[in-house]
Amino acid sequence: MSKHAITLKVNGASYDLVVASNKTLLEVLRDQLNMPETKYGCGTGECGACSVLVEGDVAINSCLTLAATMDGREITTAAGLQQNGELHPVQQAFIDHSAVQCGYCTPGMVVKGVSLLAKNPNPTEQEIREGLEGSICRCTGYVKIVEAVDAAGKAMAVAAD
Ligand code: FES
Ligand code: FES
User: What is the DSSP string of 135-155?
Assistant: First the structure.
């Protein structure tokens, strides 16, 4: 298996890594960088549990992304969303709206919510549901997750005024 020397910027820190050509970004985050907040669900692009942000606001499935292709890119995991000890508004809204049960889907859902609001700061309920498409929650029934993303968008709009 060939190896590649790459540099990843993850949650603001830069990492020089050697990765096998078949290693996914998810495997590198979890196993080489010891960042377990990004979850392995299906490994086949079906559940969204492994979602991370590239270049700040583009959500990707890290289980389908070869780490070697991410050389030089900036990755943000759910744990990297907080700033100066303050939760990101989407993280806070998930807490405030009880949008978490077992929590397994939550990092991916939060990441997808951040990505959605970056593109569409004032989404309708339908647009939120479409924005979260590809992310599966087996616990909450989605209603509270949709409410949380909606509330986060409104809170971010107020903060930006
Ligand atoms: S683990 Fe990546 S989509 Fe399910
Ligand atoms: S809270 Fe359990 S899978 Fe979503």
Answer: ---SSS-SHHHHHHHHHHHHH
Q: What is the pLDDT of the chain when averaged over all its residues?
A: 97
Is pLDDT above 90 for 32?
A: yes
CB of 142 closer than 6 angstroms to any ligand 1 atom: no
Tens digit of each residue's pLDDT (9 = 90 or more) over 112-135: 999 999 999 999 999 999 999 999
Q: Which domain holds residue 146?
A: 89-160
Query: In this structure, which ligand is nearest to the CA of 27?
Result: 1
Distance 49 CA to ligand 1 centre (A): 5
CA-nearest residue for atom 2, ligand 2, is 102
Is residue 151 within 8 A of residue 91, CB to CB? The reply is no
Instruction: Let me know whether 48 and 98 are in one domain.
Output: no
Q: Based on the domain organization, do 107 and 137 belong to the same domain?
A: yes
Q: Over the stretch 57-100, which tens digit does the pLDDT of each residue have? A: 999 999 999 999 999 999 999 999 999 999 999 999 999 999 99
The finding on whether 134 has its CB within 6 A of some atom of ligand 1 is no
